[in-house]
Amino acid sequence: MSDDPSGLPLKGLNLPGGASLLRGLARLGVTSVAELLLYLPRRYEDRRAITPVAELAAGAPATIRARVVDLRVEKTWRRGVQRTIATLADESGAVDAVWYGRRFIERRLTPNLEIVASGRVKALGWRVQLEAPEFSPVEGGETVNAGRIVPIYRLSKGVTALSLRRAVRELLDRFGAALTDPLPAEIRARHGLMTLAGAIEEAHWPHEFDQRDAALRRLAFDELLAVQLSLVRRRRRRARGSAPKMLVSTTERTKIESAIRSALAVGAAGGVASEWTSDQEAAIDAILTDLQGGEPMLRLLQGDVGTGKTAVALVAAAVAAASGWQTALLAPTELLARQHAATAQRLLAPLGINVELLVGSLSAPERRRVRAAAESGAASLLIGTHALFAEATQFSALGLVVVDEQHRFGVEERSQLTAKGEGEPHLLLMTATPIPRTIAQLLYADVASSELRALPAGRQPIRTAIRRSGDLEKLWAFVGAEAAAGRGTFVVVPRIGDEDPGEEPVGEIVGEALERSGEAGVEEEAKLLAIALPKLRIGVVHGRQRPEIRAQNMAAFASGGLDVLVGTTVVEVGVDVPRASVMVVLSADRFGLATLHQLRGRVGRGGSEGWCVLVSDSEDEVATARLQAIESTRDGFLLAERDVELRGEGDVLGTDQSGLPPLRIAALSRAEDRALAVLARADAEELLDSIGRPRAAARPLVESYLRGWPTDILVGTK
Length: 718
Fold this sequence. Notes:
Layout: H1 18-27, H2 33-37, E1 43-46, E2 61-75, E3 82-90, E4 93-100, H3 105-108, E5 114-124, E6 127-137, E7 149-152, H4 161-175, H5 185-191, H6 196-204, H7 209-240, H8 250-267, H9 278-292, E8 298-303, H10 309-322, E9 326-330, H11 334-348, E10 355-358, H12 364-376, E11 381-384, E12 398-403, H13 411-418, E13 426-431, H14 437-443, E14 448-452, E15 462-467, H15 472-484, E16 488-492, H16 512-516, H17 522-532, E17 538-541, H18 547-559, E18 564-567, E19 580-586, H19 593-600, E20 610-615, H20 621-632, H21 636-647, H22 649-653, H23 671-687, H24 699-707
Helix pairs in contact: 6-7, 7-23, 8-10, 9-10, 10-11, 20-21
């Protein structure tokens, strides 16, 4: 980037819009030439066709060529806000254009001035009007607002559509041809790709829409090549490392598995003897084979809700302990860490394996005791949250790292933990949010994968129903009947409380829409339920509670001391309460498919039938499709594919947590971009050597992409 103008700061370039534009762009994270040139439009409007005024139709954008015949400023009912009205006429008729609160409009328009104006047409009784159209004079006017395909950008305070278009146009004219293209002509020709300069020009100011598509295809390839270079380098570098060989005899393995299955049977519904499902058997075989080899294991254990991932991971931990190695199990929340610790202590106690818990809420003396046990080797399995990353947490012989809900941790965080091991510890990543197969083949091609789909014996299918808020009276009566039978109900709401307008909502929808919704928070919903169900014992759990209070309430619910537990998605992952039979999700349209599926999996775990009731009054098509998908299938893998279709892979995968460049142009939910990713993968394999270093001729290209030019700088499109 040092050989071209990409890194130049915008300050000092005297761009149109001045200091106000620069301040607004800075708020958008745009401060350099590269960042502005790659601040791409979010959509485009075709303003090439001129519509006669008499043919304007309400509800659609239109471009007219007309003369200003009248101009006036009027007061509105809002104090201090005026509207400017210009009457525009061509040979076919006249129409009013209206702007609110933009007094500068009257300085730019004068009677008899001929302009080209573009804006949305609004019905006003039997007439129509143009809403806040953008315009340019016909003579001597700019071509950035009309007469062409016009880019529509995301804006910020101080950044107007006109000032941003002017600034982008000036930068392209001054620096576009001087941009360094990291992609060699040979690769561009092989895949039919534009030059980088040409792609940036056409992405902002396309001559035709097919040229825009070609430009975005080139930029999508840049993103995908950067991702694939990262994946290939990571895989080849990891393969160079040496990992502990964890060898156990067939007799020892049988002893471990039998002990864990027997302990599982003690807590199983009706005392049914626990046997591995075929999926669990296959996963254990694959993991133990990995642990015996000299290469570091990197395996993703994907398990649908309730399929027994934790038991599989504990077999691996027990094998590590039998081989003289320690295991660290990382959980995203203290609630889940405590639950894992309780499960591990119960299942591994017959094997004499010492399990310790390290979380932030422990007292200082207890933390010191646990860390001493890990450092001395007395703790064979250490389970914890972010406290495991602390410098004070050290191990005697860390050989296996298990990361639960791996998408909630960044690559750097996982690296902090594996760095505490001997050589390169084996790494087992677990997730109850399945990754769609079509995407996993591309973004997780460097990771071995095991899937758990079958439910263990004793697990009952969960019945799912969609209800509206008018059905709540009947629903609460059903909850009361379940309580009378000794069963418990979760009630999940989208946010913690109403008292703090600045709090972070916990559902999928944020901002003003949630603030306007009038939904009750956890505490308020608990009060409403106490009125509706006066005979039931109701408790609350949420992320703002002190951990010990949250743990007490969860324990009371699990033991039968509470009939109903009202909470947020803190109960989403891993919470295991066998007596819970009903999951009620209020405002269910606020949550994504993965979250809803996880919540549903919290019930029906104790042998009795489980119910998941999704309450929503939403008329939104996408939200309704999500709820119908949940109602129609219990297969988390199918739901993952559907989630990508509805929301795109960015929200589903969380690429920021994978250590990969973000995808802003490419979308792996599209078949054409998946095909492009395959081409990029083949190129990445050729550009790097056997240990992940760039080949000599490819060094400038690889270093440029891994440094983030132009992929990490792509902004503004999503």
